[in-house]
Amino acid sequence: MYDVTIIGGGPAAAGAAVYVARKKLKTLLIAGEFGGQSIVSADVQNWIGTKSLSGFDLAKNLEEHIRNYPEEVEIKAPELATKISKKGSGFLVETDKGGAYDTKTVIITSGARRRKLGIPGEEEFNGKGVAYCSTCDAPLFGGKDVAVVGGGNAGLEAVVDLFPYASKVYLLEYSDGLKGDTVTQERVKNSEKVHIIFNAETKEVKGEKFVTGLAYKDRVSGEEKTLSVGGIFVEIGSVPNSEFVKDLVELNKAGEILIDHKTAATSCEGIWAAGDVTDEMYKQNNISAGDGVKAALSAYSYLNKK
Length: 306
Ligand SMILES: Cc1cc2nc3c(=O)[nH]c(=O)nc-3n(C[C@H](O)[C@H](O)[C@H](O)COP(=O)(O)OP(=O)(O)OC[C@H]3O[C@@H](n4cnc5c(N)ncnc54)[C@H](O)[C@@H]3O)c2cc1C
Fold this sequence. Notes:
By secondary structure, the protein is α/β, with parallel strands linked by helices. It folds into 2 domains: 2-114 and 238-305, FAD/NAD(P)-binding domain; 130-234, 3-Layer(bba) Sandwich (FAD/NAD(P)-binding domain). The chain has 6 helices and 17 strands. Strands 1, 2, 3, 4, 5, 6 and 17 form a 7-stranded mixed β-sheet that branches. A 5-stranded parallel β-sheet has the order 8-15-9-10-11, covered by helices on one side. It has a 3-stranded antiparallel β-sheet with strand order 12-13-14, with no helix packed on it. Helix 4 links the parallel strand 9 (145-149) and strand 10. Helix 1 (11-22) runs parallel beside helix 2 and helix 1 (11-22) runs parallel beside helix 6. Flavin-adenine dinucleotide (FAD) binds at residues 7-13, 30-33, 36-38, 40-41, 44, 46, 80-81, 109-112, 114, 132-133, 136, 241, 244, 275-276, 283-286, 288.
C-alpha cells in the first residue's frame, strides 16, 4: 500500500514527487515518459532560475531530481495509468502493463496533449517550424513570415506573441469569424502585420529541412492555396489526459479536472490534481511544478490527519 501514487512525469509530477519524497511518504510514480510537453522545445527561456535550456535538458533535470529519492519514490516508467477506482478507504490504480497498485491517495499530473491538425507534414516538421506554444517559441521566428492556425483566444494570443518577432503573420480560421475576446481581436485586426484568412481548411505542411509553406483550401471558393511561411503555430486547443479518471472526479466540458485552486483537491476525497490536466488557466511549466507542490503538501496534510 503506497501513501501516494503520482500519475505523470512532467513538471507537475516532479514538483509533487520531490515534495512527497522529502516528507518521507511511500510513493509510487507512474509515468508514460519523463519531461512533459516542452520536451520538444528547442529553447526554453522561462524556466525560472535557468536563462535557457532545451526541452530535452529540462526533461533530463526533472527526471534526475525525481530519481534522487530512490528510497521514497518507486518509479514505473514507461507505464500508463488506465483506470483509477475506489478500493476500501483508498484507491486501486491499474496500468497498461497489467499493474494494479493499492494506494491511500493519488496525485494526477497527466497533463495534456496538443490538439493536432492531423494533416500531412505536421508530424514530420514538428519542432522544425511547426510549433504548439507561442509563449515559448515565438522568439525563434524572428524576421520570418509565420502562420497561426486557430482564431480563438489561443490563436489570437499567439499572433500577439509573434508581433515583436515575425515579419508577417497569417491567421487562419476555419469558420467565418474570430472567436477570441474582443480586445485581443481588435489588437490583432488593427495590426498591419496580420493578414486574416477565414474559411481556411488546412491541408498540408510543406517543407524541406524546415517548414516552407502551408497549403489550405478556401472553404467558400474551393480554391487550394499555399502560403509561403517559415513557421506554423497550431493553436486549436489541447486535450487533457484525463480519460482514465473521468468516472471518479468531476471534469469540465473540455475534459479538464476541476480543482480547488487553493488546495489542488479534486471532487473526490483523497485525489488531487495539478498542472495542464486541470482547469488551471495558465498552462506553463513553472505553474505546473508549483501546482504539483501544492498537491503534494495537501496530500501530506490529509494523510497526517488520517
Ligand atoms: C511545444 C511546447 C513547448 C512548450 N514550451 C514551454 C516553455 O518554454 N515554457 C513553459 O513554461 N511552458 C511551455 N509549454 C507548456 C508546458 O510544457 C506545460 O504547461 C507543462 O508541460 C505542463 O506540465 P504537466 O506536468 O502538467 O503536464 P505534461 O507536461 O503534459 O506532462 C504529463 C506527463 O504525464 C504523463 N502521462 C500522460 N498520461 C499518462 C497516464 N495515463 N499514465 C501515466 N503517465 C501519463 C506524460 O507522459 C507526461 O510525463 C510548452 C508546451 C508545448 C506543447
